[in-house]
Amino acid sequence: MNPTRLHLHEAGVLLRLTGPLVLAQWSQTAMGFVDTVMAGRYSSVDLAAVAVGSSIFFPVYLFLIGLLNAVTPLVAQAHGRGDSRAIHRAMRQGMVIGCITGAAFMPLLWGMQPLMVWMGVEPEVILITDRYLFGISWGLPCGGLFFALKGGGDGLARPRLSMIAGFIGLAVNIVTNYLLIYGKLGLPALGGAGCGWATSFSILVMLLVMAVVLSRSNIRGTAHLFSKSTAPTRLTSDLAPFLKLGIPLGLTLFVECSIFTIIALFIAKLGAEVVAAHQIALNFTSQLYMLPYSLGMALTVRVGFTIGRRRATRLRRVVRTGLVLSLTGSVCTCLIISTFSDKIALLYTTDPAVQGLAAILLIYAAIFQLPDAMQVNCSGILRGCKDTRIPLLLILLSYWGIGLPLGYGFGLVRLGGMEPGPQGFWIGLICALSAAAILLSLRVRVMLRRLTGSAATAVRP
């Protein structure tokens, strides 16, 4: 088969994996979209509260997701080797670690009021945000269990399982949001705080669906996942490889998301209208972010499986094909956002002032689509190689060493003569993503040389 056909074949494999992954991820992030729209229709104060609350919650949630992302490359490489016991062990460890870690984070979300006061968030926004965080915190243990199961299914190239669970959870979230925000069927009218409780209930439903589907399947390595007799008797001694891979992944996602949290808290000082506009731009771009993020997850699976199979030539082909797909997709999303920015803002709010500012911020969001897609797909490739510590340091440098200082300077202290405003923070984000894209792409080159060059004797073509 000629090289072009091989690349087209690999592109087809990646896209078949990416499609269900996109839908699964979109179904989960769409919960944030639903929360934002429904809270915004209730009141601008509730919208601001959900914006601040989600900005606090998601770094914690993403650390949990990142920690459990270790399941995917472990399962993918074990699947490539045909090792059912290793698949089973990785998923069981993920379930235990996910549940314990999720429960441990709950009190953290209950004590965020002093931070919001210190950051200068308006008192009426703090009150609703505090109630929102209390409600959504109860979804963390279930989320830990769900993402362990999801990571195993994805690593086995079965992303449709989490897609089904995600869409059922989204439907439940929409209905429960309506009931709790507006107080229907005898339930209390909780406003924006109801979004937190609705999300927790939706996560529980997704976990139950995923558990039922896996318990009735014949997928390699998933038998007896929920049997007490198969509890890991050597859990403590077996945890080191999992945590060595998972903790840097969790910290990487935390670092990536926390910069958005800090920026949201700084922007909160500028008033509810500015917060609402920032949240609209961020929320919509988060929906499109699922395209490169899901491709990155597909690359993790394919890279991990290929390494497990010891196929050096195919590994390079997987990487090249994935990055070309990434670039193509990011150009498309950039054009979509920049062309329809006004109409996108109109979807979220009827407030003219918020609409106008949101449309401006969406132009900045369009620009960062290109470096964002590159950095997230390079991260997916490195994750499949089980390379997590160096990428963490590169992300930390890019986001906290470059992006946040520049964003603060442009956004609040007139760096370069710019007027203070949210636009400056978005410029900082563009700089952070560009730096991360460059550094991570260089790291990918290093890893490919190790795996297909000096290590060629251990990897057959």
From TrEMBL:
Keyword set, alphabetical order: Antiport, Cell membrane, Ion transport, Membrane, Transmembrane, Transmembrane helix, Transport
Keyword Repeat in record: no
InterPro entries cross-referenced by the UniProt entry: MATE_fam, MATE_MdtK, MdtK-like
Signal peptide per UniProt: none
Listed GO biological process terms: monoatomic ion transport
Lineage of source species: Bacteria, Pseudomonadati, Thermodesulfobacteriota, Desulfobulbia, Desulfobulbales
Pfam family membership, one: MatE
Domain of life: Bacteria
Transmembrane residue ranges: 48-72, 93-112, 132-149, 161-183, 189-214, 245-268, 288-307, 319-341, 353-371, 392-413, 425-442
Subcellular location: Cell membrane
GO molecular function: antiporter activity; xenobiotic transmembrane transporter activity
Protein's name according to its UniProt entry: Multidrug-efflux transporter
GO cellular component, one term: plasma membrane
Main location (coarse class): membrane
Membrane topology classification: Multi-pass membrane protein
